[in-house]
Each structure stands twice: as structure tokens, then as C-alpha cells.
Write the C-alpha cells for this entry.
Amino acid sequence: MTTTSARTCGEQFAVVRLPEFTGADREEVCGGVPDPYQIEGLVMAWRPKREHFGIRREGRLVAHAGLVTVPVSVAGRRTEAVGLGGVIVAPGLRGQGLARAVVTAAMDHARGMGPGAGLLFCWPELMPVYEALGWRELEEHVRVDQPDGPVTMPMRTMWTPLREGAGWPPGPVHLLSLPF
């Protein structure tokens, strides 16, 4: 298990690799808040993450971020990206740097996964959180696969370079998998 130490509000804590992130884990983090990701109304199928990172305080899981490698087509050219998703912080602990810590640890790991860029989907009001971590908004609307065929993702899409000099090419973007 990989552990990364961080400090926020004068408190020391560790970001750890988690073997999985179950529904019970999600409930532990969000404390029973219904629809913590605000996606239930989207009626979309989602791809599970394969790599998981979390923060525990006093034995309780209080933050999570997940990663998965996904196939993407940009302007008709196939490539891969590392998808960041499932980012959540316990409601009473938001604004203390836990999201920054867990996302930073996940993206440090993503740099060793191969693809040159990371992708995420989020609502406009959350974009400043990710912009502060170096993520950039894609101007293009992204098509994502669903069981009944591709649809336009209603959330905004952001990207970040995972290697020195990596960029995002122009052109239409199609995630060749379920969104993450």
C-alpha cells in the first residue's frame, strides 16, 4: 500500500492506496448524503475506477479519488487517457485541502500509468477546484459511450498533462468507453 503524507490546517494525515472503493466506502465518506456526485438525474452508465486513493481520519474514510485508463478518439485519432473520477470528501471536512491531497496523490500515480493526459468530468461550479490543481477545460463537448450508443456528456470536461510537454490536440473528442 502506497502512503503519501500531507498536512492541512496544521494536521498531518496520509493518503493511502485502497484495494477497492465499495458502496459501503462511499457511504462512509459521504455520511448518507443522497447522490453525492449529483449524477442520478443523468441516467447514465458509469465505468468503475481501477485504482483508488483515500484519506482516513480516526479510522474513518473521509476522502477518495479513483483512476482508470480509458480509450479516447480525438479528431479521429485513437489514444488513451487516465480518467480521474469518484472524487469525494466528507461533507463536514470540505475546504480543508483533503480533495487537493487525494487528487494530487492520484495524479502522481497516474504519471506512471503511460498516457500523456488525464481527463475528468465535473459540474461548472467545481471547475475552480480542479483549475487550482492545473486542470484545463476542454472547449469541445465530449461524446461518451453508453449501452444504447454515444451521447454528449452533459458535464464539463477537463484535462491535465501527465508528462512534460504533453498537450491536448484540437478536434472532436469521443470517449470510447463509459464515462468514469
User: Anything to note?
Assistant: The mean pLDDT is 92. Residues 98-110 form the longest helix (13 residues). The radius of gyration is 16 Å.
